[in-house]
Prior knowledge:
Layout: H1 7-16, E1 29-30, H2 33-43, E2 50-54, H3 60-68, E3 71-76, H4 81-88, E4 95-99, H5 107-115, E5 120-125, H6 131-140, E6 145-153, H7 154-160, H8 171-179, E7 180-188, E8 193-194, E9 201-208, H9 219-229, H10 237-243, H11 251-260, H12 274-286
Parallel strand pairs: 2-3, 2-5, 3-4, 5-6
Antiparallel strand pairs: 1-8, 6-9, 7-9
Amino acid sequence: MDLIASASKTKEILNKYPFVFRKKYGQNFLIDMHVLNKIIEGAEISHEDFVLEVGPGIGSLTQALSKQAKKVVAVEIDSQLIPILEDVLSEYDNLEIIHADILKTDIKKIIEEKNNNNPIKVVANLPYYITSPIIMMFLENKLPVSSITIMVQKEVAQRLVAKPGTKDYGSITAAVNYYAIPLFIANVPRNCFIPRPNVDSAVIKLEVLPKPSVDVIDEELFFKIVKAAFSQRRKKLINNLISQKVTDLSKNELATVFSKIDFDENIRGEMLSVEDFAKLADALKGE
Length: 287
């Protein structure tokens, strides 16, 4: 069949089937083969791979994945799109379409039943409003996932690959770097979609680490510190730790802890790397 990822084919599908765009699902369908190829190449999809796709839409990316991968399971939340996907992609017997909300889906069970608990690759064109929850769901649950290749809003992409000390660096950056190595794949202009979104996008790949990038005594405390550090960016880290009730230590006691680990007591959270956050978490745990 014709490639779905073109303006003409996409319009043909949308005209043929009863479909109404739902703003709450952030539906924008990819119509650029160049971008699609970059996603496939960036995700390094081979004929040995099991791929979980989130939000297949009308199947632009799903079609390319099905041609390249051993098995594709596509999870789509919009019931309108299920019959369209089943029809336009009927020739691919290595594709399974599931109607579900990915945030309420037992992904562990899917991997166990359909891929014998072997590592999978996740590929997605994510709705902007739930990008962070979906990324963190895959990472925090420590699922057998080797990589996550995602199309996200360009601003989100910049945050995911930001370095300490830059304006884009934030709690999501530190959290992602705890679990994975983020890589920038490609910019995607807004004219690569139907309908055209109001913002540009980018493709990011997260290479999931076999174990966290740093060792911490107390993981929960580590993430509390990360969250508190960026709660008010302009405030000093010490003040944020106190205001967010991360510790019962006084300001002077915290200053002493900072001194022990060679931290400037006036430092702001955005200056700390994942390694620095781990160092601080272990020092506070020791107290």
